[in-house]
Amino acid sequence: MNMAIGALQASTAASAPADAAARPAAAASTSSTRVELSPEALVLIAKLKARDTQVRQHEQAHLSAAGSLALSGATYVYQRGPDGVSYAIGGEVQIDTSPGRTPAETIARARSIMAAALAPADPSGPDRAIAAQAQQLEQQALAEQAQQLAAAPAAEEDDAQKFDPLTRAVQRAYGVSDAAPATIQVAA
Fold first, then answer.
1. Tens digits of per-residue pLDDT, 141-188?
2. What is the rounded CA–CA span in Å between residue 1 and residue 131?
3. Which has the closest alpha carbon to 107: 81, 137, 78?
4. Contact residues for 88 (Cβ-Cβ < 8 A; gap 6+)
5. Quick one: angle between helices 39-66 and 6-15, nearest 10?
6. CA 148 from chain center: how many Å?
7. Comparing C-alpha atoms, which of 98, 92, 102, 104 is closest to residue 68?
8. DSSP 8-state class, residue 93
């Protein structure tokens, strides 16, 4: 599932200093590196940390709901913060959206895909689009299943007549038609 990341990138880029000269000098010692950051950089780091947490929870929700349909773990898009740490600002989970071998299997898969797409508390636009595609897949499979069920009784009657030659031979020998009910006469 893809996450929209453009808005955060634009907001984080706008809050970053325009050039290196505008950044305050970092103080560092040799044994333990300590970097002093500007208030703006600290605000940006807080935003990046919050976004990182949100993205990871979102993708974990997809993974948990996808189960065996997940093709891989979550992959992330990172942005390096002013503190040198990379923060996840976007991500996705690849999910197998192919139909099943039968309509019933396709219906089950489509429902699992919908559940995985809508699992996060805040599904993105692409998440909703995948859920809508899965719903369409489910509807098509339900229609196919209904057609198969409607055709099944007629096929069973044809099969019974084709594959029961002994019954047909007995019916012809005694002049019994298909419409006549089977009866047994018992004389005492």
1. 999 999 998 887 765 665 555 556 666 666 666 766 655 555 556 665
2. 10
3. 137
4. 51, 52, 55, 56, 76, 77, 78
5. 170
6. 27
7. 98
8. -
